[in-house]
Amino acid sequence: MTWERDAKTLELPWPFTGREDELELVRRASTAGRPGIVITGPAGCGKTRLVTEAVRGTDCARVAGTPETRRIRLAAFAHLVPETATLHDAFQHLTGVRLLLVDDAHLLDDASAALVHQLAVHGRTRLLVVTTDGAPVPGAISRLWTGELLPRLTLEPLPHEETVHLLAGGAGGAALEPLTVNRLYRLCQGNLRLLRELVDAMRERGLLTRVPESDEWAWRGPVPVTATVRERTAHVLDRSRPDERETLERLAFAEPLPLDLARDRLDLHTLEHLEADALVHIDDQGAVRLAHPLHGPVLRAAAGRLRARRLSRTPDQCGPALDAERAALTRRIERADVREMPAPVGEWLVAEGAPVPAGYAAVRARFARLRGELREAAAWAREGLRDGDDDPSCRLELALATAQSGDTTAAHEILGGRPHGGGAVTRPVTARGDTVGVVPAGIGDAHGAVGVFPGADDTAVEALAGDAYDAVRLGTPQLAEGRLTGVFAAHADALAQGDGAALDRVAEQLEERGFLLFAAEAHAQAVRAHRDPRAARTARTRAVALARRCQGARTPALSGLVLGELTARQRQIVTLAAAGLSNRQIAEKLTLSVRTVGNHLYSAYARLGASDRGALPWLVELPDTQSA
């Protein structure tokens, strides 16, 4: 089923996501008594959207530079000052403006730039000035921060976690499944302008298909070569030397290519030139790939059909590389190290819409689940089940991810109603070499344990006799005595002794190894163990931050991370804030002042160990609403 026609033309505003700290900084800088701020960053990273959100509801004058008016005197201020005004006259006309937003200040004409500088020197007008990194900037504008007239905020591209939140939350009118979100992030690298154009193109061209039995949509197939995509890859597509274009195209259809094979298949001299021009990259494993993840898909999409057919590898030709990826992922799991690692061949299969072998999909699902990426784990498991092959390992992984997301009923249905124990995600083994003494179970084993289910009862806990680390996660470390090693044994010991500081140290070690969900659970256990309220709040903050990255995890250990010891009014305000209401909307709803709402939220943040509004939905949505 593809995206319906009537949905293609539905224009929905994208929600403002992330950037909470930056938003608050810009808002403070634009308040009375402050001079303003300069916001810089790469093109497309959301600078204009940030300042627009910051001044929403305020009396703000706006000007903007454009390429077409760069040589027209005072063009940016034409709507605010008389046409014949001198610089002095323009300055006098603007003395009553208390807040001025200057967008694309790097494109201002010299007179407009000088006027902005004079307003900054005078100090009565608060200035929000937006410029793009890497673009030539008029001297009068650059002196705003080099001369220390205004503070400068450098905005980085939107990070992966916030991009995931934006797209999974229905940006562009459709909730996208995790593998599509990951693909978009790899292609766009935090560039919101490019991201929006790609999502819009997918909707308009009917490239989205509904994931069975869900409300999510998936994108498989070629990258749409939109105007922005063409602009950003012109230096690759328009390469004038035929040997360089040929090398880029061959690499696009074969990356990542081991260096020894690259020497055989590609002209090494040409490859060196392309590396010097930062168009190809040799990674730490000695594989050659194109420098930007967008270049390969665009080169493939731009190739003619006959050329693509000649250069393309078929899915069955990926077998050895896919086996190598699976083996590498399995080794990392066996060593209890699930830090992020590249596995591009499997991602290429998914992007092309080709079948993914069930054994590979199960390992990818398990690796993602142990990292706490539960929605991604479920997506990989579905890939392995997509062609009707009822692979028990993939079905098990899908049940595990579903159960740890809190939907135990669906997990039972996925397993066909078969009985399960209370937990098992790990089993102890004898340590050997550099292997940590706990290997997560269930890889390729349908009879392995099935994961910590929320609400496990005493009978379920007793069933953990063979699943030592899950006993720790469920708060029964005595069942794991003498059966774990390394950081997992340290976790059991710290929990048995009720040592909050030791639990926090264990959590840090687990986080270093990539076990974000386990780390969140250890910090959550530390909250209960700490006697010092400040230490408990710090542990809660860390647990919440990690749990937010675990894509909706709902496990017993996390059930205590709820609303803290709030007053009834604080709980009411936090619930409304978590639902997305602004301070002003909450104030109107509860007949309070905006300042009172802000004070209650500030106190609630301190008690919850939350740093910003972003943590509130996660806290409020937990099934257990008792105070921790």
Features:
three-stranded mixed β-sheet, single chain, disordered C terminus, disordered N terminus, 628 residues, five-stranded parallel β-sheet, alpha/beta
Compact description:
With about 625 residues, the chain is an alpha/beta fold.
What does this structure look like?
With 628 residues, the protein is an alpha/beta fold. It is built from 32 helices and 13 strands. It has a five-stranded parallel sheet with strand order 2-3-4-1-5, sandwiched between helices. A three-stranded mixed sheet has the order 6-8-7. The chain has a three-stranded antiparallel sheet with strand order 9-11-10. The radius of gyration is 27 Å and the shape is globular.
SSE layout and pairings?
Layout: H1 5-8, H2 20-29, E1 36-41, H3 47-54, E2 61-64, H4 87-93, E3 99-103, H5 110-122, E4 126-132, H6 139-146, E5 152-154, H7 160-168, E6 175-176, H8 178-188, H9 192-204, E7 208-210, E8 216-219, H10 227-232, H11 234-237, H12 242-252, E9 257-258, H13 259-265, H14 268-276, E10 280-282, E11 287-290, H15 295-302, H16 305-311, H17 319-334, H18 344-352, H19 358-370, H20 374-385, H21 392-404, H22 408-414, E12 426-428, E13 438-440, H23 458-462, H24 468-473, H25 486-497, H26 500-512, H27 516-529, H28 533-548, H29 568-578, H30 583-590, H31 594-608, H32 616-620
Parallel strand pairs: 1-4, 1-5, 2-3, 3-4, 6-8
Antiparallel strand pairs: 7-8, 9-11, 10-11, 12-13
